[in-house]
Amino acid sequence: MYEISVLLRDVWKSYKFGSELTTVLRNVNAAFKKGEMIGIHGPSGSGKTTLLRIIAGLERPDRGDVIISGYNLNLLDEVGLSMIRNSIVSYIPQDYGLVDTLTVFENIEIPLLISGVDKVSRVKSVSEVIQYMGLKGKENLTPSHLSGGERQRVAIARALVTTPSVLLADEPTANLDWSNAIKVMELFRNVRKDFNTTIVIVTHDPRVLEFVDRSLNMVEGTLKEITPKT
Prior knowledge:
By secondary structure, the protein is of the alpha/beta class. Helix content is about 30%, strand content about 30%. A hairpin with a 2-residue loop joins strand 9 (about 215-220) and strand 10.
């Protein structure tokens, strides 16, 4: 029996722009297994980022259930959602979300500081993830001194430092050339294998889907399974 890490049931989300109501997500249903790497493909503006943010607990759906590792996010207050984001789900935004004035070490340390982890444990956890991500020797550099691929690695390292059950990545290869994009996708594969993490990647690049276990397409605000090639 496999374990479900992410369960979406009849999820809807709309935004109001002036007098216009635009429905971005409609009747989204999906189940992602523990240790599964999912690719969600679709054009810009199709609702992919909104879906990721709802799974991360950064936005609430208008209706429907979002259940992450057994927790129904609809039943949690802001404190509960913060707990989910600090311990169960990590979200990597498209722009990496790094703080330019902080070093690589300090950027990766942020989630542990927010969670109140003691200094000795923080140093141990950050050092381990730096080693794992191949960032040894870059600890004291700021993001402006890193390549695009290195900045993406720092963003992934910061997401991994809390050892989340679910890792969400918004267009992780969009700012990279294809050779670096391949390295990042292989890195996600390693993370999935080494930590049994559920990884959900949204992308507009169909080549990224070659690296995932299962592909879904965002069509008119809902998810459709992409039939594997035989």
